[in-house]
Amino acid sequence: MPAATGPAGAAAAESKNNPEPAPAGARTNIFDFDRVSLEDFFENVLGEKRYRAHQVMKWIHHRYVTDFDDMTDLGKALRAKLHQHAEVRAPMVIHEKPSVDGTHKWLIGMDPMNAIEAVFIPDKGRGTLCVSSQVGCALNCQFCSTATQGFNRNLTTAEIIGQVWVAARHLGNIPHQQRKLTNVVMMGMGEPLMNFDNVVRAMSIMRDDLGYGLANKRVTLSTAGMVPMIDKLGEVSDVSLAVSLHAPNDELRTELVPLNKKYPIEELMAACERYVKRKPRSSITFEYTLMKGVNDQPRHARELARLMRQFDNATQMKDAGKVNLIPFNPFPGTRFERSAESDIRAFQKLLLDAQVLTMVRRTRGDDIDAACGQLKGQVMDRTRRQAEFRKTLAAQGADDAAA
Ligand code: SF4
């Protein structure tokens, strides 16, 4: 069966690696497969025609059916074979919380000890799902609630695409017909480029017509600046890229985003330049969380404008870099505060006056702790960071908040 044409075909073609085989005696979770790897599974493990994989993908991702017996266009013998070798195991929703502004948050259990959060944010004409890629995060950005939880493990492809499935089913989303889910951003818990293969495979399902049928530009991966992996992503994928910049110079950025010590701004911008110059060309969004008195002063805005102009020149593309200003969302125990509204507007004006395309992200879902940077989940920490954070909170007399 030929691969589909257009974006879905491109998405299917990029996934080269098949997922890890299930341990002996265990059944394979179909959620772990994108189109190519599921076709391989049907051909090599089940001894079936490759196109059968397409029928199963449609049942799962378009109709939210997880029982093979309900997949009525599959023959009885194939259903029996599927029962023997595979299962469709959706992640378990532990808790869900709607916000007054329409935002919806899910706490999703990944194993008995760990849970992550996913958030749906509806807006005029679009619905964006913010998806997690790891249980916790190892990168320790100083202004991030997830970082205080420490790190446990990477999510599997099934656990990443499972978040999309849970949200899409809740919304009654029907790809190509009744589209409620229009965008996915890999901006939840974790650094997606540190879980490369599973994230790329999950993004392939998001963009495949047999999956959620989203256009390349409607799937965004956000990174803190894993330079070599940005290049690797550019080789295999056409998704939109967002970079968590948060400071316009190395001294301040290293303080806020410790990864900057390894990959300083010059190296990061060079990797972004290479990403933009691929074909088709696409701009990059630079995320900049504004914190009172830390990175929100006029001198920071001027430095940032210079950096963006240099980026336009290097890429020879107008608006190659867009800036997304995010008012800081406080969480218990943080030493940072949100910038004053007047400072946020003044910062944006300085950038706009310097011809830098700049948006301010409206805060959504803060009544349910679902705003940007507030996701926490439940992490069986392997880094001791939770313990350190609790000690800091206790020293501040905020023990309750640390519990
Ligand atoms: S901001 Fe992102 S990369 Fe940094 S600690 Fe938080 S989740 Fe990790």
Automatic annotation (TrEMBL):
Keyword entries, A-Z: 4Fe-4S, Cytoplasm, Disulfide bond, Iron, Iron-sulfur, Metal-binding, Methyltransferase, rRNA processing, S-adenosyl-L-methionine, Transferase, tRNA processing
Amino-acid positions noted as binding [4Fe-4S] cluster in the UniProt annotation, renumbered to this chain: C137, C141, C144
Residues noted as binding S-adenosyl-L-methionine in the record, renumbered to the chain: G190, E191, S222, S244, L245, H246, N329
Recorded superkingdom: Bacteria
Low complexity bias locations: 1-13
Job description of the protein: Specifically methylates position 2 of adenine 2503 in 23S rRNA and position 2 of adenine 37 in tRNAs. m2A2503 modification seems to play a crucial role in the proofreading step occurring at the peptidyl transferase center and thus would serve to optimize ribosomal fidelity.
Comment field (misc): Reaction proceeds by a ping-pong mechanism involving intermediate methylation of a conserved cysteine residue.
Similarity comment: Belongs to the radical SAM superfamily. RlmN family.
HAMAP family according to UniProt: RNA_methyltr_RlmN
Descriptive protein name: Dual-specificity RNA methyltransferase RlmN
Name of the gene this protein is made from: rlmN
